[in-house]
């Protein structure tokens, strides 16, 4: 399994959702807000960063079940970083994590049917 096909599928799902809802970014609501990172010119919701983190959480947890809480915590922090950077709202991250987890569960379902394991 490579990262590229998984990332591509994740991008398609998340980008389609972004344009369906077409939510402005935080700095578009207030000229007084200066994000710490450059703000992409596409809609905010859901966060792609959080979507990838949610998917990674599920996949890594499948392969490393003894590390589930550590993995979950790190992926949630990864998603939150976009809020702190000023490029997303909390809901963008929460829903992105949820979307990514759903995508990850679909992939894990396939991995289970093919009996794919790390060890």
Describe the 3D structure.
The protein is elongated. By secondary structure, it is mostly helical. It has a domain of 72 residues. 68% of the residues lie in helices and 0% in strands. The chain contains five helices and no strands.
Brief account:
The protein is an all-alpha fold and 119 residues long.
List the helices and strands and how they pair.
Elements: H1 3-21, H2 26-29, H3 48-63, H4 68-85, H5 90-113
Which residues sit in consecutive blocks of at least 5 with pLDDT less than 50?
none
SS-derived structural category: mainly alpha
Average residue-wise pLDDT: 85
Helix content bin: 55-70%
Instruction: State the helix count.
Output: 5
Shape: elongated
How would you sum up the major sheet? none
Number of strands: 0
Distance linking N and C termini: 15 Å
Strand content: under 5%
Cα-based radius of gyration, to the nearest Å: 15 Å
What is the string of helix and strand elements? Answer: HHHHH
Pick out its properties.
single chain, 119 residues, mainly alpha, 5 helices
